[in-house]
Write a structure and sequence with these properties.
The complex is a heterodimer of chains A (297) and B (243).
Chain A lengths: L3 H32 L6 H20 L4 H23 L1 H5 L5 H24 L13 E3 L2 E3 L1 H23 L1 H11 L1 H6 L4 H27 L6 H15 L4 H21 L5 H15 L13
Antiparallel strand pairs in A: 1-2
Helix pairs in contact in A: 1-6, 1-9, 1-10, 1-11, 2-3, 2-5, 2-9, 2-10, 3-9, 6-7, 6-9, 10-11, 10-12, 11-12
Chain B lengths: L2 E12 L2 E12 L3 E5 L6 H8 L7 E6 L2 E2 L5 H7 L1 E4 L11 H11 L6 H14 L15 H14 L5 E5 L7 H16 L3 E5 L3 H7 L2 E6 L2 E6 L1 H4 L3 H6 L7
Parallel strand pairs in B: 3-8, 3-9, 6-7, 7-8
Antiparallel strand pairs in B: 1-2, 1-4, 4-5, 9-10
The chains are: A mainly alpha (297), B alpha/beta (243).
Chain lengths: 297, 243
């Protein structure tokens, strides 16, 4: 049963899928940090990304340009988020609303239902698979599906880009400031409403990217975002809401735990191992591995 | 001197309490005005209204003739009216230097990065925060935070009026002096100040004119020495002499 090779393969594939889960978690946490809301429709932006990927590959670019389609899908989801935020989310802050959380919950769940119904209406209840030209790849001594390897590579590049934008650019500085204190950012002259739209768009684009990258593996259908979204929220609980390192490390941790459980205990229970991890974290660090008990004002 | 900031008829109620009752005030360009009054007189409410944090039920505010009434805080800042808060609102998880960068670049200034960095270096030196430039702002003391907050306001290009809400409350004397020097220097460079404070010694030193608010209304205006002799003002301070 036990072999070093199996262990290595399991760890590698766990880290790889974990990086993709981390994209979802990062999107959720990032939107929460700036816009102060949970976007329950994250999975539907994942779904949008995967559909755009399929349509672009199947009807326009072909399998050799799958990588260009990934960029188009991510940009497309970004734009959809950027256009939707001022209409759906902005009223929450612009009018001094009493129950902001309730408003955000109702609006994003409505959006979730609407986008799913739209997918059924347009594409039907069928499964699609965008093709790629990727062969089996060797990671060290181990053979891996090419799409899986490239998905992780793209995700890593996206995470590096995200880090650069947040830590090295002026908009990143403004985003970090707004995350810490909205009112102070506003009185410093920062247009936080525009930042909200940018943050929402970046957050959902991360989900769209995950959807486009995983589409060849997990397929394209109206509810394909649900499982990954649940993973995203599991990671948030593990890593701590509002923590970017928490989202990354929590994602990898979840991926590894699930892979190890599936390989060495029993694979039908793969999704359950993640929940065990969540339960353990809730028992010993209820605010998450990297969460803060209270926020610094 | 011409008026730079004019507020007329500002009224704000919280339930049955009238926090501001038809408040009117004008600031002349280049002056340092003190705003004093007993606790609960409506000073902070007034500041909140003119800087867009709260909305008045009626009345209007103009800055250099442009209407500010009802604008969002970032637009009011862009017009050239910025404020500090009584409890300093700095960005705790940004460094001191980054705290100063935020307002400059938020203002979409046409001036370049080099000028901004030079201005940051100057303010760090003047505020004595230089050794802490790369520390996180949450490690600062209360007084240092107040200095940083004031400097962040001085970073916004083309600001005409600075409103400081209780800048001297609970900070040590050395930091107080540094802050006063900064204010005087910015004033000399052309900035107008409205300073809410209970510290009569400082108000007497730096504010040629003061406005007194009592129970939501402007009760008096003029040089502090003159106002301190008025009976209604003295009564409002519960008989304590302002001298």
């Amino acid at each position: 049963m036990y072999s070093t090779e199996l262990l290595a393969q399991t760890l590698i594939s766990g880290v790889m899928i974990g990086i993709l889960y981390a994209l979802m978690a990062l999107g959720i946490t990032f939107i929460y940090s700036i816009v102060r809301m949970i976007n329950w429709a994250m999975g539907e932006f994942y779904m949008l990304g995967s559909y755009i990927q399929y349509v672009v590959v199947a009807y326009a670019l072909g399998r050799n340009y799958w990588w260009l389609a990934i960029i188009i899908s991510t940009t497309g989801t970004f734009l959809i988020g950027y256009l939707l935020e001022p209409i759906l989310i902005k009223p929450m802050h612009a009018r001094a609303m009493e129950r902001r959380d309730d408003y955000a919950t109702v609006v994003t769940i409505a959006l979730l239902l609407m986008l799913r119904s739209l997918a059924v209406a347009i594409g039907g209840p069928y499964q699609y698979r965008p093709e790629t030209n990727l062969p089996i790849m060797w990671v060290g001594p181990l053979p891996m599906e090419g799409a899986r390897v490239m998905a992780s590579v793209f995700a890593l590049v996206a995470l590096a880009l995200f880090y650069l934008v947040i830590s090295k650019t002026w908009i990143g500085l403004a985003l970090r400031a707004a995350a810490q204190n909205r009112v102070a950012a506003q009185t410093s002259g920062v247009d936080v409403f525009r930042l909200d739209a940018v943050a929402f768009a970046i957050g959902v684009a991360l989900a769209g990217l995950a959807g486009a990258l995983l589409a060849p593996l997990f397929l394209v259908y109206p509810t394909n975002g649900a499982v990954t979204t649940v993973k995203g929220f599991e990671i948030i609980v593990i890593g701590g809401l509002g923590s970017i390192p928490g989202a990354l490390i929590g994602g990898v941790l979840l991926g590894v735990v699930e892979s190890l459980g599936a390989a060495f205990i029993s694979s039908p229970y793969q999704n359950a191992y993640g929940f065990l991890l969540v339960l353990l974290v809730l028992l010993f660090r209820p605010y998450g591995l990297f969460g803060e008990r209270g926020r610094e004002a | 001197m011409s008026d730079i900031l004019a507020a007329r008829g500002l009224t704000k109620r919280y339930g049955g309490l009238t926090a501001n009752d038809a408040v009117a005030m004008t600031l002349a360009a280049g002056e340092i005005r003190g705003l004093i009054g007993p606790n609960g007189a409506g000073k902070t409410t007034f500041v909140n209204i003119i800087t867009g944090i709260e909305r008045a039920e009626s009345g209007e505010v103009t800055l250099h003739g442009a209407a500010l009434t009802g604008l969002a805080p970032h637009l009011i800042a862009a017009h050239g009216l910025v404020r500090t808060f009584q409890v300093a609102r700095v960005f705790g998880n940004l460094t001191v230097r980054e705290n100063l960068m935020v307002p400059y670049f938020a203002s979409a200034s046409t001036r370049g990065t080099i000028e901004a960095l030079a201005r940051i270096a100057e303010l760090l030196r003047l505020s004595t925060l230089e050794p802490l430039a790369d520390s996180l702002a949450k490690s600062l003391s209360g007084g240092q935070r107040m200095l940083l907050q004031a400097c962040a306001g001085f970073m916004i290009p083309d600001v005409r009026v600075h409103v400081l809400d209780e800048p001297f409350a609970g900070i040590n004397p050395v930091v107080k002096d540094t802050l006063i020097e900064l204010i005087l220097k910015e004033n000399k460079a052309g900035a107008t100040f409205l300073i809410v404070s209970h510290e009569m010694d400082i108000i007497r030193r730096i504010c040629p004119r003061v406005t007194v608010m009592i129970a939501g209304k402007v009760a008096a205006e003029g040089p502090l020495e003159e106002i301190a002799r008025r009976e209604d003002v003295v009564t409002a301070y519960l008989g304590r002499s302002l001298q």
